[in-house]
Amino acid sequence: MSERTLVLVKPDGVERGLVGEVIARIERKGLRLAAMDLRIAERSVAEEHYAEHKDKPFYGDLLDFITSGPLVAIAVEGPRAVTAFRQLAGGTDPVEKATPGTIRGDFALETQYNLVHGSDSPESAERELKLWFPDL
Ligand code: CMP
């Protein structure tokens, strides 16, 4: 059964010219792009997106970073899309957790600048897709 997940190519990924690389990996896996948008995230959207981290010490820096420049929001669709993309992305810490062969494992060094976001569950995906693509 098909499901959807929200992928963000964060401002570091756009700045470094890695949007095409991320999209190529999504497509090669067999997942489809259902919607895509290059935009600067509004602070209110970023706050809601990362609400579960609001008590973490890195929350302020995370909001500053995610709103610091253009990002690419993508609705990705396919069988087990949530898990499939999280495997493509690799673990949150690009050195300790993400293995080579994953997006973060191949291209990132710091947890804050880990290039991509992928929803962590189908429930999160539904919430996040409503937030980023209300008309989808
Ligand atoms: P993401 O998958 O978008 O979800 C939460 C984000 O918070 C995560 O990727 C990282 O970019 C960031 N993050 C998580 N842990 C830390 C940390 N210890 N220091 C800085 N940023 C973090």
TrEMBL record:
GO terms for molecular function: ATP binding; metal ion binding; nucleoside diphosphate kinase activity. Homotetramer. HAMAP family: NDP_kinase. Transmembrane segments: none annotated. It is found in: Cytoplasm. Its EC number is 2.7.4.6. This is Nucleoside diphosphate kinase. SMART domains: NDK.
